[in-house]
Design goal:
The complex is a heterodimer of chains A (109) and B (893).
Chain A: H1 11-21, E1 25-26, H2 27-37, H3 46-59, E2 62-68, E3 74-80, H4 82-108
Antiparallel strand pairs in A: 1-3, 2-3
Chain B: H1 2-11, H2 13-37, H3 42-53, H4 56-65, H5 70-88, H6 90-119, E1 131-140, E2 143-147, E3 149-150, H7 151-160, E4 164-177, E5 184-191, E6 205-206, E7 222-225, H8 227-234, E8 244-247, E9 250-257, E10 273-276, H9 277-285, E11 296-305, H10 311-333, H11 339-342, E12 345-349, H12 361-394, H13 396-404, H14 409-446, H15 459-485, H16 489-495, H17 506-538, E13 548-554, H18 562-578, E14 582-588, E15 601-603, E16 615-620, H19 624-628, E17 632-635, E18 649-653, H20 654-660, E19 670-673, E20 681-688, E21 703-708, E22 718-723, H21 731-739, E23 747-752, H22 753-796, H23 798-806, H24 811-840, H25 856-882, H26 886-891
Parallel strand pairs in B: 5-10, 7-9, 16-21, 18-20
Antiparallel strand pairs in B: 1-2, 1-11, 1-12, 3-11, 4-5, 4-11, 6-9, 7-10, 8-9, 13-22, 13-23, 14-22, 15-19, 17-20, 18-21, 19-20
Helix pairs in contact in B: 2-3, 2-4, 5-14, 6-12, 6-14, 6-15, 7-10, 12-15, 12-17, 12-22, 13-16, 14-15, 17-22, 17-24, 17-25, 22-24, 22-25, 24-25
The chains are: A alpha+beta (109), B alpha+beta (893).
Chain lengths: 109, 893
């Protein structure tokens, strides 16, 4: 099985924030959503997902609440905070700039 | 914000971990469920989910780690692991802790002593680095000595120099404070108004005196109280300001109180009050106080260099002013002063007396002992390092396993360091307790009569302990760390410690040799000082200092004429002998080891007696020789018939008789005692043994003679009293009985003559006791070190020894083998230490007494002791090795 490609540093946070921008999700849900929306290219392992979530909690970009899952298991749900929305916008802009820059290099260098 | 969230999270660390575990479990189950939904069998799905998840614990720890102060957490974990390990091994832990405690405690106590004597600048002094004490020297009879002490001299320095932004005069005097029955002798600071400007010390109440109150003609009768005195006498009340207080001969008005920490230049014996130098000098000397050079009262000068003025420039400036001062003195006195003979010299030296040119032998010995205590610490560290090293060696396999499991090396090293740090910390805590006790002993012994300071409340000593703790923790941890860095993973995993070969650790052997060498050096020092002290004790002083009490009278404002004073002294003499237990009493003017008195003498046939040296005398009553226990060698002593009007008589010391009338009978010879050679004869009636009047050395034996008190100044001086057995017990009864005879506000003080002698011998007592204590401590530590290494080696060599037994080695062979190893190490240590001691010991020679610094007896004895202890320390494990059961030892392989 081919390993999922390495993410650019910081992009995991961006992906998680973007995923949560559409609504509240639990950890597994986030991983699934990222996988699906990337056409199965990006797989977020729990060994990086949960530390990332904790980091976002610590920074105050998301908040977490325990709730019942689809099949009534206790699960922790994450919601984007106002600060998280702002951070997502900023990060996104930064990412576009970065990707644009990389494209320019690929096209012209 | 982050901080608060982190803190809140940290508070519920445990539930946080549980939450994460649950969350991850949910994640795994979700994967599993998806797999089942896609048609995998439940068991298979569980395995796949588990594989997909990877290391769940690590994920949890990583996620949890986000919230932690990572380094702090690691440290805490290391400490926890260490503590667990140490609890499992209490003998090792207690041993190491005690070793550290002894090392740290001894050092803290020594530091506290040295700090108070010669490191700490005076409290509250502003910029102490620019402040100096002025030291003045001049030659008399070709010998340089310190001089100064007059106000006029101080004034000349103030007026004759340009290098200083401030100068101040200072002295301390024992003066009676108060009147009537509550009068007590206290130490009083006699200072100029400028003195207070040297300090950052705004008064706690009232104000300090100003220049106008400290100026000719007489100064103002105003006083500043110390904070302690304010509390003790006035209960800290504001109405102390304006109160009237008699100090010495003058009634002063209290105008201010110094702040609590203010001790002037005298932290060891802080003055109770401060009075203007003008006021005091005028009351002591009279109208000429400011201009006379003939009345010195111990007045010193402190100076503050102007910015940019070097010490050398300041010294040169002072020297110029000092010479100029002698010229002024010469002009004023009309008596020519030979500058070429005096060769005056001035110096801007340390503000601390014990670091100045006149530092005491006690301070010098204390400095050496400071070094010695560091050596003891070094030995303690070597010991602990060796023990930790042994532990690290025995944990090789464990460490290798942990490395294989992926513990990072830096984490491993930090864990080893944590262990030594925890041990050092625990040791230091015990060490502080030890230091409190030790330093109170040291202070009582070597700073007698000073304000005691507890180590626990002294920030500087505690800071020192902190630094020492970190240093010993780091140093002792270093060895096992170096060891761990050398680990070869696969080798150690394969073999571990359970192999037939044994590696003698070269580092541990080197540490042992070092310990042995250092112990030997300390023991040599101990031997040299113990023998010095014995020589000092063996010196026949020519009197029994221990049985004699001295009585001094203090007249205060009570004015008696000469006849009245002479009569009072006789009354005191009579009263003294009525006290039960008092055997003899005599009048004296001089105290051996205290003050000297000399007067010109003239002898027919000798053109100038001063070419022989200094002649000192005492003026005594008939019981003198019985009181002092000084032996009369020929003729008679002073008798009750030797009164005013009878022929003048004297008793001379043996050496004095020898130089003045070599080969002739001194009895009946005429000596003229007086300023001119035409005064009537005083006839020699007896010869007494020589006495040491100034010190223990042969050079301190002065030419001494005795006059009859009834014939020579009967009004001067005090009393000596001989008490049978335990003179100390008689101090108070004697004082009380004599006080009844004293008129008005005058009073007597009684002290021991032995005290003066003890002051002189203190440096040897200090050297002998502390060198011995440290030396023995070092030896014990070294012995423990040797024992533990030999025991460890024996344990490592079990198989080899068993093979030897199996092949027919006798128990005695094994013992010889093991003891031989210990002895070899000790011998190398002794040899190295011997060479170091031979090189270093001549440097302590000036502090020894009649003792060669390379005394073969000392070196021999000490080496013998070291080797004997080495044999003893290795004998125990050796005997154990002899009982190796070859069967079980070999089968264990």
């Amino acid at each position: 099985m081919k390993n999922p490609p390495d993410l650019l540093p910081g992009t995991l946070d961006l992906l998680v924030l973007r995923t949560l921008a559409r609504g509240t999700l639990h950890g597994y849900g986030i991983a699934q959503r990222v996988k699906e929306s990337s056409g199965d290219v990006l797989q977020v392992g729990e060994s990086s997902l949960y530390p990332a979530l904790q980091r976002l909690l610590l920074d105050g970009y998301v908040k977490a609440e325990w709730g019942a899952s689809e099949n009534n298991r206790r699960a922790r749900y994450y919601t984007l905070t106002a600060a998280g929305h702002r951070h997502l916008a900023a990060e996104r802009k930064e990412f576009e700039r970065m990707v644009g820059a990389i494209r320019l290099v690929l096209a012209n260098a | 914000m982050r901080f608060l969230r982190r803190l809140a999270q940290w508070m519920r660390l445990r539930s946080h971990g549980r939450d994460l575990a649950e969350e991850l479990a949910f994640h795994r189950e979700a994967i599993e469920r998806d797999l089942v939904a896609r048609g995998h069998a439940p068991a298979e799905a569980r395995d796949m989910a588990r594989r997909a998840m990877g290391n769940e614990t690590m994920a949890r720890e990583d996620a949890r780690g986000i919230w932690l102060w990572p380094r702090l957490e690691a440290l805490w974990q290391d400490a926890k692991v260490t503590l667990r390990g140490l609890r499992r091994n209490p003998a090792f832990t207690v041993g190491v802790m005690l070793t550290f405690a002894l090392g740290v405690g001894a050092n803290a106590a020594m530091f506290s002593l040295l700090d108070r004597m010669m490191l700490r600048p005076p409290a509250l002094m502003r910029d102490p680095a620019s402040v100096h004490r002025v030291y003045l020297f001049r030659h008399i009879d070709g010998v340089e000595g310190e001089t100064g002490g007059q106000y006029a001299r101080h004034a000349d320095l103030v007026n004759g120099t340009t290098s200083f932004s401030a100068l101040a005069a200072h002295a301390t005097r024992q003066l009676a404070v108060g009147v009537g029955t509550d009068a007590r002798e206290m130490r009083i600071g006699v200072v100029s108004a400028s003195f207070f400007d040297f300090f950052d010390a705004p008064p706690a109440a009232g104000r300090y005196f100003g220049a106008a109150e400290d100026a000719p003609p007489a100064g103002a009768p105003v006083a500043v109280l110390s904070h302690a005195m304010w509390q003790a006498r006035f209960g800290g009340r504001q109405d102390a300001i304006g109160a009237r207080l008699q100090i010495g001969a003058v009634v002063y008005t209290v105008i201010g109180v110094a702040p609590k920490e203010f001790v002037g230049l005298w932290p060891l014996r802080p003055p109770a009050a401060f009075i203007p130098v003008s006021t005091y000098a005028a009351s002591l000397i009279g109208a000429t106080w400011a201009t006379t050079y003939s009345s010195a009262f111990g007045l010193g000068t402190i100076v503050r260099r102007k910015p940019g003025v070097s010490i050398a420039v300041a010294t040169a400036d002072l020297a110029r002013a000092f010479v100029q001062s002698y010229r002024a003195q010469s002009a004023a006195g009309g008596r020519a002063i030979e500058l070429a003979e005096l060769r005056p010299r001035a110096l801007a030296g340390s503000i601390l007396l014990e670091r100045g040119p006149g530092r005491s032998d006690v301070a010098k010995v204390a400095t050496w002992l400071g070094g010695v205590s560091l050596i003891v610490l070094l030995i303690a560290c070597a010991n602990v390092a060796s023990l930790l090293l042994a532990r690290a060696l025995s944990k090789r396999r464990e460490i290798a396993v942990r490395l294989a499991l992926g513990v990072s090396r830096s984490r491993l090293l930090s864990q080893i360091l944590t262990e030594s740090m925890v041990l050092a910390l625990a040791g230091s805590v015990v060490g502080i307790v030890l230091a409190i006790w030790l330093s109170s002993l040291l202070q009582a012994a070597f700073l007698p009569g000073t304000q005691p300071v507890s180590v626990a409340s002294d920030g500087r000593t505690l800071a020192f302990i902190g630094i020492v703790t970190l240093a010993v923790g780091a140093v002792t941890g270093l060895f096992p760390v170096l060891q761990a860095r050398r680990l070869t993973l696969t080798e150690d995993l394969k073999s571990g410690a359970r192999t037939g070969t044994y590696h003698r650790s070269r580092t541990r052997s080197a540490l042992l040799v070092l310990q042995g060498a250092l112990s030997l050096v300390l023991l040599v020092g101990a031997g040299l000082f113990v023998r010095s002290l014995r020589h000092v004790r063996d010196v026949r002083l020519g009197f029994d200092a221990d049985s004699v009490l001295t009585v001094d009278t203090h007249m205060r404002e009570t004015k008696l004429d000469s006849a009245q004073t002479a009569a009072l002294r006789l009354r005191l003499l009579d009263a003294a002998t009525t006290v039960p237990g008092i055997e003899h009493a005599t009048l004296v003017v001089a105290e051996p080891f205290g003050g000297m008195s000399s007067w010109p003498i003239w002898v027919a046939g000798v053109d100038s007696v001063s070419k022989f040296g200094r002649f000192e005398f005492n003026s005594v009553s008939p019981d003198y020789f019985a009181t002092m226990g000084t032996h009369l060698l020929r003729g008679r002593g002073i008798k009750s018939g030797d009164v005013h009007g009878a022929p003048r008589v004297m008793v001379v010391g043996a050496s004095m008789a020898g130089v003045l009338w070599p080969g002739a009978d001194p009895l009946g010879k005429c000596v003229r005692v007086g300023l001119v050679d035409t005064v009537p004869c005083t006839y020699v009636v007896g010869v007494a043994e020589d006495i040491h009047a100034r010190g223990f050395g042969p050079q301190d034996r002065s030419f001494y003679y005795y006059l009859a008190a009834a014939q020579f100044r009967p009004q001067l001086g005090g009393l000596f009293v001989r008490a049978g057995g335990g003179a100390r017990r008689f101090i108070e009864p004697l004082r009380r009985r004599l006080q009844q005879e004293m008129p008005g506000a005058s009073y007597v003080t009684v002290s021991r003559l032995g005290e003066l002698v003890e002051n002189e011998s203190r440096s040897w007592v200090m050297g002998a006791t502390l060198f011995t204590a440290f030396g023995v401590l070092a030896l014990i530590l070294a012995a423990v070190g040797l024992y533990s290494v030999i025991a460890y080696n024996v344990a490592q060599r079990r198989q080899e020894l068993a093979v030897r037994v199996a092949l027919g080695a006798a128990a005695s062979d094994l013992i010889r083998l093991v003891v031989g190893e210990g002895l070899r190490l000790a011998s190398v240590g002794a040899a190295v230490g011997g060479v170091i001691a031979l090189i270093v010991s001549p440097r302590v020679a000036p502090l020894l007494f009649n003792q060669s610094p390379r005394d073969p007896v000392v070196f021999g004895t000490v080496t013998g002791a070291l080797l004997a202890v080495a044999i003893g320390a290795s004998m125990l494990p050796a005997i154990r090795s002899a009982h190796v059961d070859p069967n079980s030892a070999l089968r264990a392989e």
